[in-house]
C-alpha cells in the first residue's frame, strides 16, 4: 500500500519505518529540512533501539523515503498518517495547532480519496474537527480515522511490530477495511484490532496514559508512606503485584513520571474534563503528587550535607526520563538538577544517550562526563535519576575509590539496601530504610 506519514518524531518515524518493513511504500514528511536531509543521508535522527537496522534496510529497498513537501506526500499516499506534536498549551490543554494547520493544507491539496489517520494523541472531538477543516476545501472524498499509538519509547519498534492491540476509531466501512488490511500483518498472533467510534478511540489513549500515571503515582505515595512507618516498599510491591488483578508491572516507585506523554496527557484530560464541567479529582492529585515526587530526594540530600550544598560536587547518573531513550522532556533529573544548582552544588553528569539533549538545555551549567566513572571522580555523592541497565551492577570498589564521600541517593531503587550497606555505602532510596 502507499502510505504518507506527516511528522517524523518518535511516533512518525517508527510508524513509517515499520510500515515499510511489511512491504508498503512509505514517504515520510517533515517540516524540519535539516532532519529530512539527515534521514536522506541514512542517519536516524533519534535514538530508538533496533530502528537503525529497519531504517537502513527499507531505504535500500526503496520502500522508505523522506521529503519536506506535504504535497509530494499527499500525492503518494492513499493513507496519510498525522504523527504531529500535540504539546501542552499554556492552560494545560493539548495544543492542536500542528494537527489543525496541516489538516487545513491537506484539504487544499488532496485530489483523490484519502484516509487521514490521526496518530497524534488528541482530545475527544478532534477527528470531527479535522473532518470539518479538510471538508472546507477538499474537492474529493476522504475519511478521517482516529488511530492512537501506544508504543513506548525505548521499545517503540517492538511495540509497533507486535502491538498488544490496535485501536481504530472510524465510522467509515471503506476506511476501516483499508486500516485492517494495513495492520493485519502486525496481529498475526491473534492480538485484536479493536474497532470503535472516533471519540472512544481518542479517549482510550488519554484513559490508558492517565491510568498508568495514576498507578505509578499510587505506588509513589505508598513508598513515601513506607518511609514514615518503617515498611519496605519492595516487600509491599511483591506482596501486591502477585495479585493478578493488580499485576506486577508499573509498581516500581521512584522520582516520578516524566517524558513527552504522561505529563501532558494527564493534564490535557484534566483540562478537557474542566471544559465539560467535569472535575477529574483523581488526576488533580496525580499531577500534584508527581510534581512533588520529582524532588523527593532533595531533603535527604540536604540533610546529609547539613543544609549546605555550596561547593559540593554531585555526580548524576541518568538524565533521560527513562532508560533506552535520549528523550529528556519533563525528565525528573531536570527538576532535581535545577534545585541542586540553585543550592550551589556542582553537577558532574552522565547518561548513555541523553547528553546532547541535556547540554542543549543546561549549556555550561553542568560538567559533562565521558563515562559513568568519570562522573563520580572526586564527587561528594552519587545521585541516580534513570535506571539504565549499566548502572545496575557497577564496580562498587571503583565507585568507592572515586567518590570522596561514599554516599548514593538512588531515585530508582537500583540496589538492594543490605548489599549496598555491606559494600560500605550510605544509601538513600525511595520507600525503603535509609542506610546512614
Ligand atoms: P516529536 O516531537 O518527536 O515529533 C514530531 C515531528 O513532527 C517533528 O519531527 C517535527 O519536526 C514534525 N513536524 C512539526 N510540524 C510539522 C508539520 N507542519 N509538517 C510536518 N512535520 C511537522 O513527537 P512524537 O513524540 O513523535 O509525538 C507525536 C504524537 O504522538 C504526539 O501527539 C504524542 O503525544 C503522540 N505519542 C507519542 C508517543 C511517544 O512515546 N513519543 C507515544 C504515543 C503517542
TrEMBL record:
Reaction(s) this enzyme catalyzes, per UniProt: UDP-alpha-D-glucose + 2 NAD(+) + H2O = UDP-alpha-D-glucuronate + 2 NADH + 3 H(+)
Database matches in SMART domains: UDPG_MGDP_dh_C
Record keywords, A-Z: NAD, Oxidoreductase
Domain of life from the UniProt record: Bacteria
Pfam families tied to this protein: UDPG_MGDP_dh, UDPG_MGDP_dh_C, UDPG_MGDP_dh_N
Boundaries of every UDP-glucose/GDP-mannose dehydrogenase C-terminal domain copy: 315-417
Entry keyword NAD: yes
Metabolic or biological pathway, per its Swiss-Prot or TrEMBL entry: Nucleotide-sugar biosynthesis; UDP-alpha-D-glucuronate biosynthesis; UDP-alpha-D-glucuronate from UDP-alpha-D-glucose: step 1/1
Top EC group: oxidoreductase
Enzyme Commission designation: 1.1.1.22
Family: Belongs to the UDP-glucose/GDP-mannose dehydrogenase family.
PANTHER family: UDP-GLUCOSE 6-DEHYDROGENASE TUAD (PTHR43750)
Protein name: UDP-glucose 6-dehydrogenase
Amino acid at each position: 500500500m502507499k502510505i504518507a506519514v506527516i511528522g517524523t518524531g518518535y511516533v512518525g518515524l517508527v510508524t513509517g519505518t515499520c510500515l515499510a518493513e511489511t512491504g508498503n511504500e512509505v514517504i515520510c514528511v517533515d517540516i524540519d529540512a535539516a532532519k529530512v536531509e539527515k534521514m536522506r543521508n541514512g542517519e536516524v535522527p533519534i535514538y530508538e533501539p533496533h530502528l537503525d537496522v529497519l531504517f537502513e534496510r527499507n531505504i535500500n529497498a526503496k520502500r522508505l523515503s523522506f521529503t519536506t513537501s506535504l504535497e509530494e506526500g499527499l500525492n503518494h499516499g492513499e493513507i496519510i498518517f498525522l504523527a504531529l506534536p500535540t504539546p501542552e498549551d499554556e492552560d494545560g490543554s493539548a495544543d492542536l495547532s500542528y494537527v489543525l494547520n496541516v489538516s487545513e493544507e491537506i484539504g487544499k491539496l488532496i485530489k483523490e480519496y484519502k484516509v487521514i489517520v490521526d496518530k497524534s494523541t488528541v482530545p475527544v472531538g478532534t477527528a470531527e474537527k479535522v473532518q470539518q477543516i479538510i471538508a472546507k476545501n477538499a474537492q474529493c472524498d476522504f475519511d478521517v480515522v482516529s488511530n492512537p499509538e501506544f508504543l513506548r519509547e525505548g521499545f517503540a519498534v517492538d511495540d509497533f511490530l507486535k502491538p498488544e492491540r490496535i485501536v481504530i476509531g472510524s465510522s467509515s466501512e471503506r476506511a476501516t477495511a483499508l486500516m485492517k488490511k494495513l495492520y493485519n500483518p502486525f496481529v498475526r498472533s491473534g492480538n485484536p484490532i479493536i474497532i470503535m467510534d472516533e471519540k472512544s478511540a481518542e479517549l482510550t489513549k488519554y484513559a490508558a496514559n492517565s491510568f498508568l500515571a495514576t498507578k505509578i503515582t499510587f505506588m509513589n505515595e505508598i513508598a513515601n508512606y513506607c518511609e514514615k512507618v518503617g515498611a519496605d516498599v519492595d516487600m509491599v510491591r511483591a506482596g501486591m503485584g502477585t495479585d493478578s488483578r493488580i499485576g506486577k508491572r508499573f509498581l516500581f516507585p521512584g522520582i516520578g513520571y516524566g517524558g513527552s506523554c504522561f505529563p501532558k496527557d494527564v493534564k490535557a484530560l484534566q483540562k478537557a474534563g474542566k471544559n465539560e464541567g467535569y472535575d477529574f479529582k483523581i488526576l488533580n492529585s496525580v499531577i500534584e503528587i508527581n510534581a512533588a515526587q520529582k524532588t523527593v530526594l532533595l531533603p535527604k540530600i540536604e540533610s546529609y550535607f547539613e543544609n549546605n550544598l555550596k561547593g559540593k560536587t554531585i555526580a548524576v547518573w541518568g538524565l533521560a526520563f527513562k532508560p533506552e531513550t535520549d528523550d529528556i522532556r519533563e525528565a525528573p533529573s531536570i527538576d532535581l538538577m535545577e534545585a541542586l544548582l540553585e543550592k550551589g552544588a556542582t553537577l558532574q553528569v552522565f547518561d548513555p544517550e541523553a547528553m546532547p539533549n541535556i547540554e542543549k538545555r543546561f549549556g555550561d551549567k553542568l560538567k559533562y562526563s565521558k563515562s559513568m566513572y568519570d562522573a563520580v571522580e572526586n564527587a561528594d555523592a552519587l545521585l541516580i535519576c534513570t535506571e539504565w541497565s549499566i548502572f545496575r551492577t557497577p564496580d562498587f570498589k571503583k565507585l568507592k575509590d572515586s567518590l570522596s564521600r561514599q554516599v548514593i541517593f538512588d531515585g530508582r531503587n537500583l540496589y538492594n539496601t543490605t548489599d549496598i550497606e555491606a559494600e560500605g555505602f550510605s544509601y538513600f532510596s525511595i520507600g525503603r530504610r535509609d542506610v546512614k
